[in-house]
Structures are given as C-alpha cells and as structure tokens.
Amino acid sequence: MSKLHDPHKVILIADDDEDDRMLFLDAVEDLNLPAAVKAASDGQELLHTLDKDRDRLPDMIFLDINMPIKNGFDCLAEIRSREDALKEVKIIMLSTSKNADNIELCYKLGADLYAVKPSSFQGLKDLLQKVFEIDWSSIQKSSNRFLLA
Questions:
Q1: Adjacent-strand bridge partners of 113
Q2: pTM for this structure?
Q3: Quick one: pLDDT band at residue 144, thresholds 50, 70, 90?
Q4: 3-148: which CATH topology?
Q5: How far apart are CA 23 and CA 72, in angstroms?
Q6: 108: which DSSP letter?
Q7: Domain ranges of the chain
Q8: Dist. CA 144–CA 80, nearest whole Å
Q9: Over the stretch 44-91, which tens digit does the pLDDT of each residue have?
C-alpha cells in the first residue's frame, strides 16, 4: 500500500529492553498517534525486518544505541550506507546517555535526531509528541537542533 493511501505512519522501535519496548508501544497507543509500531529486540533483528519488509519501509526508526549482537551505531552506519530508499527513513537514536562523543558520532553517521531516553512515561509521551509534530520537509539538519532531551 502506498503512503498516499495509508493515513498511518509505520514506526520501528529497536531496543533490547523489553520493558522499554512495551512502554513505547503504550505511549503511542495512549497518545492515539496515527502509527503502527513494529518492534525489534536487537540490531540484527532490526536489519532483518527492514530487509524482509521492503514493500513497506518504516517512516521512522527509533534506535537504541546499546544493544547486543549489533549495536545502534553499527545499524545506523549500515542503513545510511545503503543505496536504496532506507537512506530516507528518519532515524531517531535513543540513549540514556548525553555523552557528547556519542551524540557527535550519531550526527556524523547520519541520524536525524538524538533523543535522551526519558525517565518517566509522561516524558516518553512528550518526546513522541514532539517527534510527531516535526515538519520533516522543512527541517534543516544541524548539530544545534539534533539533541532532544
């Protein structure tokens, strides 16, 4: 189904913490966001899901940095190195850290945003609301508008 006929966005969350994945799903549902959410428990599963579902790529990927098997940095680098439509998918990196080196690396590797994982359910809902309100067609990627904390 083409995006023009589908009023919903597809979001893919890749996070090895099952509780964080469940909270993410609950927050999307609680906000009544027009989105279908798919989940992956590690980077390898994320890449497999992207390869398997080529007919309907996600609109956004929320990508945890610290995951087993394949971490978020490696996934981001692989996705951005591809010569296909995946290069256009919006990627929001998720981390509990505000480490400047991690933020800079994500920016250089091609992430669209870096979000510090909120410590509360309401904080997560606020973060998701902010991301959904972004007008991606008019946003200019810059390092001073890269961090959502």
A1: 92
A2: 0.88
A3: low
A4: Rossmann fold (3.40.50)
A5: 19
A6: H
A7: 3-148
A8: 21
A9: 999 999 988 777 889 999 999 999 889 999 999 999 998 777 888 999
